[in-house]
Amino acid sequence: MVPMLIGGSLNVLGYGLATLGPALGVAWIFASVINGTARQPEAKPAMMSTAFIGFAVVEALALFGFVLAFVAQ
């Protein structure tokens, strides 16, 4: 019996798993903004500016992971 050969790069699989963190981070950020807006609608502008800063930081981490997946090959 011939053993299965794994083709491709495991880096891509690692990046696929690493995208779960930023996805959950973005979901939690905007879920908190929706919750806060429902409780205090007048505070929406302040919460949205903070949410966009948090979104940028979380997405930057995802992009770093994407770049490192190709650098490590």
If you had to describe this structure to a student in words, what would you say it looks like?
Residues 13-71 form the V-ATPase proteolipid subunit C-like domain. The chain crosses the membrane at residues 12-34, 46-72. It comes from Acidipropionibacterium acidipropionici (strain ATCC 4875 / DSM 20272 / JCM 6432 / NBRC 12425 / NCIMB 8070 / 4) (Propionibacterium acidipropionici). Pfam families: ATP-synt_C (PF00137). The record marks 59 as: Reversibly protonated during proton transport. With 73 residues, this protein is mainly alpha-helical. It has a single domain (19-71), classed as F1F0 ATP synthase subunit C (F1FO ATP Synthase, Up-down Bundle), CATH 1.20.20. The protein contains 3 helices and no strands. It has helices at 10-18, 20-39, 44-71. Helix 1 (10-18) runs antiparallel to helix 3 (44-71) and helix 2 (20-39) packs antiparallel against helix 3 (44-71). It is elongated and about 65 Å long. The relative contact order is 0.16.
